[in-house]
């Protein structure tokens, strides 16, 4: 019986090693790419600026629209991680105001965090999937605890 289990485990390990990812590879490390079938579209790297007022905190990004666009309401991202930890990326919706994109938090109101799932594909390659449909608009992948972000648009 034990020999049978060991044999099955050996076969399972061999099959798992044989199933290598053969899809498109991100060109640059630590930059999320939108996956469109066999084409990757780089997200827009941005600096997120924080502005505080009496009751609000606004986070803004320059420009009205991201050049990185996808028609998919459930975008999929590929990230070749070297220094960036994909588990610390969060997605937020941005509003276009006065020539820039921003998200405002009022008082104790929490931002509308969008749920994602991050899975290691192989080696340093990760896949990030959005759990719920996104509406048309501007979004940012924010690197938790930093002023770095990566913008994209659902069109």
Give a structural overview.
This protein has 155 residues and is mostly beta strands. 11% of the residues lie in helices and 47% in strands. The protein contains one helix and 13 strands. It has one helix at residues 2-18, and strands spanning 33-36, 39-42, 44-47, 49-52, 56-62, 69-70, 76-80, 89-97, 100-106, 116-122, 125-130, 137-143, 148-154. The strands form two sheets. Strands 3, 4, 5, 6, 8, 9, 12 and 13 form an eight-stranded mixed β-sheet that branches. Strands 2-1-7-11-10 form a five-stranded antiparallel β-sheet, with no helix packed on it. The longest helix is centred in the N-terminal third of the chain and has 17 residues, at 2-18. 25% of the residues are buried.
List keywords for this structure.
1 helix; 11% helix; eight-stranded mixed beta sheet; five-stranded antiparallel beta sheet; globular; mainly beta; 155 residues; 13 strands
């Amino acid at each position: 019986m034990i020999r049978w289990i060991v044999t099955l485990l050996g076969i399972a390990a061999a099959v798992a090693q044989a199933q290598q990812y053969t899809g498109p590879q991100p060109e640059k490390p630590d930059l999320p790419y939108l996956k469109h079938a066999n084409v990757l579209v780089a997200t827009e790297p941005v600096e997120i600026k924080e502005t505080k007022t009496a009751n609000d905190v606004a986070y803004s990004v320059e420009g009205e629209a991201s050049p990185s666009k996808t028609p998919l309401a459930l975008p999929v991202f590929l990230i070749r991680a070297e220094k960036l930890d994909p588990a610390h990326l969060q997605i937020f919706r941005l509003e276009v105001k006065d020539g820039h994109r921003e998200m405002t938090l009022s008082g104790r109101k929490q931002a509308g965090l969008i749920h994602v799932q991050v899975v290691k594909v192989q080696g340093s390659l990760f896949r990030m999937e959005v759990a719920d449909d996104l509406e048309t608009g501007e979004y940012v992948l924010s690197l938790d605890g930093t002023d770095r972000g990566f913008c994209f648009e659902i069109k």
